[in-house]
Amino acid sequence: MTSLVIFDLDGVLVKAKEIHFNALNDALESISPEFCISYSEHLNIYDGLKTRDKLKLLNKNKGLSVADHDFSLGTQASDYQQKS
Fold first, then answer.
1. Torsion of CA 44, 75, 30, 20, to 10 degrees
2. Strand, helix or coil for residue 23
3. Which of 8, 27, 53, 78 is an S-S bond match for 49, by CB 3.0 to 4.6 Å?
C-alpha cells in the first residue's frame, strides 16, 4: 500500500529548468561550444519545448546538423526523419 506520494510542481522541490539547461549545454558543448546557448536564450526561445524540438531550432538558429541530433538523442537520421 502506498503511504506517501510526493508531487513536485516544477521548481518547487527540484529546479528542473536549471538542471535541463545545464544538461543541454553539456551535451551541446561535447559537440562544439558554438552550439551552447545562454540562459536568456533558453528562457526566451527553448524553454518548455521537447528536446527534439529544441534540436530542430538549434539546427535553424545555430546550424546544429541532423547527425549531431542523432548523436545527442542516440538515434539515426532515418529515425529522426520519420518522427519529424
1. 40
2. helix
3. 53
Quick one: which of 61, 44, 51 has its CA closest to 20?
Answer: 51
- Which segments of the chain does DSSP mark as H helices, in order? 16-31, 39-41, 51-62, 66-73, 77-83
The values of phi and psi at residue 48, to 5°, are: 90, -10
Residues in the chain: 84
pLDDT value, residue 5: 83
- For the chain, the straight-line distance linking the first and the last C-alpha, in angstroms and rounded, comes to 42
Look at residue 3 in the predicted model and tell me its pLDDT.
86
Q: Which residue has the cell 545545464?
A: 22
